[in-house]
Design a protein that fits this description.
Length: about 350
């Protein structure tokens, strides 16, 4: 497994249907003008509406730039796809697949049905900046609320490397930021709230060669009443030092708001370390007070050098990623359809 694989021809993860009910979507992406803001990573967009959703569409061919997502550039993408209804949220992400993968996003506009919806961003998607996220869920006209540290800019106006050597000053500043963000995830206000609800997260790593990871792992929980976004799984109940080892089962205790019935989760890692690729067998989330357990079979890699190269994955209870419904089928439970994804491991 390699953190940065050899470049391969990019392909869309979405099969675009040819139905006459399709809508034309225009996506405008403004990359920031700060030093080294551009990215060479593969970029994906998901659109969630009140009727349907489009999952992980690759923004690949810019209408106005041959090399998209360069510093200060505005890129426009157009595609036809299913009618999602009223746009509620989007997810923008990249796969961290290049040395210069860190990306500073200014904003995204989504235009369809003669209506433009704006998503202000003004932050890094980078494993070595701020809260180290490379996947971000956004609501219209609302900036992300996560703590974001200012970028450490070099004197040279060259593209930033996520694995480049750092001088002593940079090392000191980075260490300070890391402590701040560890505190941010540990001291979430939900944890100390009087009405905090206890959850138990069980993560089973597959028993196969090189299945384990040393990367930082995060989980998000989405219910019908509330959500818990990007809680780092870093201290197991048994307090063992090495987490997510091949064949191991790790259990974590999480206190958060009562988010009601669990609809989906997101599991992700930040790609840190040479052996960051991770093969997950399954995940369970137990609502302790009600003794309700939600099971999420996984059985696949989260690895920028394997399969579809994803390191962030949305999961629904009792469904393997490859069992998610095609957009032409009706989702009986949620009234939604989902784009078919290729999760075949190479």
């Amino acid at each position: 497994m390699f953190l940065f694989p050899e470049p391969t021809p990019a392909t869309s993860t979405v099969n675009e249907p040819s139905s006459n009910s399709n809508k034309r979507y225009t996506i405008t992406v403004q990359t920031g003008s700060v030093a080294s803001a551009g990215t060479d990573a593969n970029v994906f967009l998901s659109l969630y509406g009140d009727k349907n959703k489009i999952i992980r569409y690759q923004l690949q061919k810019s209408k106005n730039n041959s090399d998209p997502f360069e510093r200060g550039h505005k890129d426009e993408f157009e595609f036809d796809n299913i009618d999602i209804g009223q746009l509620k949220t989007i997810t923008i992400e990249h796969d961290g697949s290049s040395i210069t993968s860190g990306w500073y996003l200014d904003f995204i506009d989504v235009t369809y049905n003669n209506n433009t919806v704006n998503f202000p961003i003004d932050r890094w998607l980078a494993i070595d900046e701020g809260d180290k996220r490379i996947s971000l869920e956004l609501e219209p006209n609302t900036k992300p609320t996560s703590k974001i540290a200012p970028a450490v800019e070099n004197d040279k106006e060259e593209k930033r490397s996520s694995i480049s050597p750092m001088d002593e000053k940079t090392k000191i500043e980075y260490s300070s930021e890391k402590a701040d963000y560890d505190d941010f995830f540990d001291n979430d206000e939900d944890t100390n709230a009087e009405n905090a609800t206890e959850y138990e997260i069980t993560v089973k790593t597959a028993d196969k060669r090189s299945a384990g990871t040393d990367a930082n792992v995060y989980i998000s929980l989405f219910g019908d009443k509330d959500k818990l976004e990007r809680r780092q799984l870093k201290e197991a109940i048994d307090r063992k030092l090495n987490l997510f080892e091949s064949g191991a089962t790790d259990r974590f205790q999480v206190f958060a708001v009562d988010f009601g019935k669990l609809k989906r989760i997101r599991i992700e890692h930040d790609g840190r370390g040479i052996g960051s690729g991770w093969y997950i067998d399954s995940i369970e989330v137990r609502y302790v007070a009600r003794n309700e357990t939600y099971k999420f079979p996984v059985d696949r890699w989260l690895d920028s050098g394997e399969g579809d190269k994803k390191i962030s994955l949305d999961l629904e209870p009792d469904k393997k990623p490859g069992q998610l419904k095609d957009e032409n089928n009706t989702d009986q439970e949620e009234g939604n359809t989902e784009q078919k994804r290729d999760t075949t491991d190479e």
